[in-house]
Amino acid sequence: MLGRGGMGQVFRARDTRLDREVAIKILYPNLAVETEYVRRFFREGQAVARLDHPNVIRVFDVGQEKNLCFIAMEFVEGRTLLAILDERGALPVAETLSCAAQIVGGLQCTHTQRVLHRDIKPGNIMIAQDSSAKILDFGLARIYGVRALTLTGSVVGTIEYISPEQVMNDPVDARSDLYSFGVVLYEMLAGQRPFIGEEPIAVIYQHINDEPLPPSVHGRHIPVEVDRLVLALLAKRASDRYADAGAFLADLAVCEKLIAARIASDPTTASPEPTVIVVPHRPRDEFYCILAGRDAELTRMLASIDRTLEEDGQLVLLGGNEGTGKSRLIDETLHYAETHGMWTLFGRCMYQEMVMPYQPFVDALSYRLSAASPVENARFRVRLLKDFPDIAGLMRHVWTSQERRTLGEYQPPALAPAAEQQRLFQSIMHLFFDIADGPGVVLCMDDLHWGDTGSVQLLHYMARQLKGHRICLIAAYRPEEVQDASERPFSGTLQRLNAENIGETVTLHNLDETAIRTMVQDIVGSRVVSVSLSNQVYRESGGNLLYAIEILKWWRDRSKTHKLDIATLEQLDEIAVAVPPRITDLILNRLNRLQDTERELLEVAAVGGDWFDVDRLSNTAGVGRLETLRQLHRLERRHAVIAAVERGTYQFTHGKIQEVLYHELPEIQLQAYHAAWGRTLIACQETGEDVTVELLASHLYAGGDGQAALAYLIKAGEDAIKVCVFREAKRYWEQAAEAVEDMEGENARKYRLDILLNLGRIYYDLGDWDLSTERNKQAFGLAQEMKETGKQAKALLQIGAVLIGRNQWNAAIQIFEQSIKMYTKVNNDVGVAHANSYLGNICYWRGQWERAHFYYLNAHEIYLLSDKTRVAVTAINLGLVSVALGENETAISYYNMGRELHRKNNNLPRIAQTGTNLGMVFEREENCDNAIKNHRESVALLERMGHSLSLWNAYINYSRVLARTGDISLAQEILQKAYAILKELKNQRGLAEAKRVDGLIVGIQQNWN
């Protein structure tokens, strides 16, 4: 057997009469007794038999033997495009365009013969061994002008690739196939589809309503000409797409020529002369020197601050390899912002495994609390707990025990992961925008190359919404850490930011000889420094600022006076002292000059993290508090390897020092130090201190005590799921799985079962459906052994979700029905509702509106009684089904219910989107007053949120209704706002939609010119 499809199985066979290999497609026996299915099956064979094109599969024969219906086709040795994409991800642009020309060439032939495919997707495209493409499986094909043989209430096509008109059961033509091919082309270029959702209903909604991002957002190598081709194919309205396959092929040929010409010419551009700005520096120690050689970069940084003060929010992407002076440049920038009255907030990502979700944002908000006056601090705390409890939950370490009890009473709404993440992002962004009102804010996030998934995604989200706000984001990172780091989330986010042309990129390179000489002169305090000596610093350091300073410190440590002055340098110049070859060696040489007790204390601190508390360090190292303070004082004043941050808290003066200490430790010693930190943190927790579970989990696990770590790993994994950072959640749950392997007994089995179920869910959310299915099957088997019927039902529910994702709907239905029986047996009504919701989705996607309504209503009624947090979702689903059924009044009622619930949960994006849905329903009802009211409210809310990506669409809808009611002046005013955003975003599809409304307006005005 070669494979199976929606209607039959395909076998490899041999035609003995003509001595050739063929593929035989046989209709499923249960369908062979259904007249309509048999007619559809033979229609496929007849349709393809008329086609003669090298990129379309050939049909040799169609027939029936008793109840066996078959089609004999050309056998192609090769692989499906689906298998190739699964293996390789995104394909090279040239290979993709070559394949596209073949596929669309085949479609051109089918359309010329008045045959629509209606199910173009990677699984229906075969790539032969000679790289030629063949279109397969015309099982859903339709001949122009022939009555459709669709079954009652069904929608034909595959959800991920279906056109908007197929979803809505509107008439379709060749442009529907072109839309589906546009999704395929997008996937070939970007490595992912343009519309992705946890549930297919979300994908359907996006097909109908959402504009796709350009493919180049996912890969900077994709030319803008290719973006235009793809986006034209994916236009929502068929009339906005290519008229036919030939029109696309003509544009494709032009596109390939333009790309070839650009590659041949390789143009370069000249950079303008920088403006020099001198900013007073703030001395820290003897090596804190003037900012030499960075005039151009500083000018650009300060210009971003100036633009921010004019309510033109900015993102600065500050890239520089290790030791190039990012921190020094940030210091000057923040000082400039402070002199202009702005808040300056700072957060840093950690390179060790003990990462907290959204750490740089949490650090920045914690600093906002600590920097405020007592009265301001109290007000800000109350506001966080009352208005932003989801954010306050990320900052548990700053709250008193009473405040933590208040937080424990907060119940977040139950939303799909993508919706929950959007709600959290909106909440955090709204809080920072509120802080920025008035004086403005500079939020600096350092070491983002180590950033967690949530932090870098939130950065991207906020960066798109900065216009009109007095907030400047500075994202500092090391380029060498993100170039080939697929496991580092910031790598992909940086590519997307660059592809979307978001942010000012400032890149630091090593300093030149003049800058190094100026730096040495400033540190020594004399301009009389020999050229040979400053040149030696330059040669040895290569212009790397950190390395240069470490060389000077190394020379100072070797002087008799332990001072770095002109006399010392002259003496060193005469004897030509050699310098270690690497910065790591320099730092190690400096660390080796410490006393043993100082070095050991510093090693323990390095395992603890970037910053450390005196009391915790003292307890972990087993050194008295007074002796710890003495050693820290020497390490700060004499060796300058740490610096006091605030009373009782210290930080390493450079992250490289901590890295060197950590990586130089033998593994057995590293494990012992982690274990010691784990014991200290448990003791702190027992005395009432709030310790983050991520720290406890990481230290105990790295310390080799899996049993002690288990509960904390599970809690850290649960918390990561709640805030939608699934990559981090996966790590915690996998570590928990390892930890429980060494445990025995009934409790261990219960832990193992819960871990398997959670891993099944996480792998699903991360798109690893094979592993998700495997873990859920393991969970089902273990639950069966333990007679845990409810857990068996949950495993089935999660297996069903994977089957839906794979479009195996019939199998999914059976799984969900089995799950319902099990949930019913244990009286788990909420589980029954979940399964009904899934079944409703399947019926909705099939166009079985009445059945969908039945299942959604079942789920809705259960949630009303048992889980009100989910009612908003089912209300919106019922609204969508009601629209499909033509029951607009019912849809309005459900939409209103959903919106009110979203208001209670303060889910602002969903409130605005539901308002837009209501406006469109009222517009269909010719109830323009209510349409205007709802569109106006959505626009006002999105304006307050600064949600540019949704706002332009809301403006267009609002403008269209205003025009239809004759309010031309306001319609034009609103439309101009949409144009402004769309031009800023360079959204060509959106601009086309705005032009359409513009055409409506001038038509009403009878301005025919």
Give the tags.
five-stranded parallel beta sheet, Transferase(Phosphotransferase), domain 1, 61% helix, alpha+beta, 1009 residues, Rossmann fold, Phosphorylase Kinase, domain 1
Q: In words, what does this structure look like?
A:
This protein has 7 domains: 3-74, 2-Layer Sandwich (Phosphorylase Kinase, domain 1), CATH 3.30.200.20; 82-265, Transferase(Phosphotransferase), domain 1; 295-508, 3-Layer(aba) Sandwich (Rossmann fold); 513-579; 582-653, Arc Repressor Mutant, subunit A (Orthogonal Bundle); 666-741; 907-1009, Serine Threonine Protein Phosphatase 5, Tetratricopeptide repeat (Alpha Horseshoe), CATH 1.25.40. The chain is of the alpha+beta class and 1009 residues long. It is built from 45 helices and 18 strands. Residues 143-155 and 267-284 have low confidence and may be disordered. A 5-stranded antiparallel β-sheet has the order 1-2-3-5-4. A hairpin with a 2-residue loop joins strand 4 and strand 5. Helices cover 61% and strands 9% of the residues.
Write the layout of secondary structure elements.
Elements: E1 3-4, E2 8-15, E3 20-27, H1 29-32, H2 35-49, E4 59-65, E5 68-74, E6 78-80, H3 81-88, H4 93-112, E7 115-116, E8 125-128, E9 133-135, E10 142-143, H5 164-167, H6 174-190, H7 200-209, H8 224-233, H9 245-265, H10 295-309, E11 314-320, H11 326-339, E12 343-348, H12 359-371, H13 374-387, H14 389-392, H15 401-408, H16 417-436, E13 441-446, H17 453-463, E14 471-477, H18 479-482, H19 489-499, E15 504-508, H20 513-524, H21 531-541, H22 545-557, H23 566-575, H24 583-592, H25 596-608, E16 611-613, H26 614-621, H27 625-637, E17 642-646, E18 649-652, H28 655-664, H29 667-686, H30 693-702, H31 706-722, H32 726-741, H33 746-765, H34 769-786, H35 789-805, H36 809-825, H37 829-845, H38 849-866, H39 871-884, H40 888-904, H41 908-924, H42 928-945, H43 948-964, H44 968-985, H45 988-1004
Parallel strand pairs: 11-14, 11-15, 12-13, 13-14
Antiparallel strand pairs: 1-2, 2-3, 3-5, 4-5, 6-8, 7-10, 8-9, 16-18, 17-18
